[in-house]
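Hi everyone, sorry if this is the wrong subforum. Our group has a chain we'd like a structural model of before ordering constructs, and none of us has done structure prediction before. Sequence below.
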Amino acid sequence: MPTGIDISPVAAEEFERLLPLIAAYQRFYEVEQIDEERNRAFFRRFLAPSGDGMLIAAREGERIVGYACLYWHFSSTLATETVLMNDLFVDEGVRGGGVGRALIEASAAVARERGSPHLEWATEPDNHTAQRLYNSTGAERTEWVEYELGL
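Answer:
Right subforum, don't worry. Here is the predicted structure as tokens:
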């Protein structure tokens, strides 16, 4: 854990301070129109306790410098619940200091607590910075190809 960084679930009273980081994550992935109200409604469902998932934050004092959004997910091949780390984002000013790795470790701890056989996540093929971090964690890169059908 990087010095001076605390990681724990996002509390309801600090949720509003997380929203700008969520918007920064969306801008990173080139979302054209960020809707703060939709973000507020959507992400609030992940405040603990939640049947949908969990938001965990990395804090430097009172400032949120990174977050992960976990979804409770299912594997029909394993016939079990798994945990999907759907979002992982670290403020650009603190990247490279271990915050991302600490968030992954905290996410893995949540998955272990839930009895999940693994933590899973995906990234864009050209996000080489993230892939360097992910490759260094001991995670196995899968051969699965993901598809999206626009509706």
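For your construct planning: Strands lie at 5-9, 53-60, 63-75, 80-90, 119-120. Helices lie at 15-28, 36-44, 99-113, 128-136.
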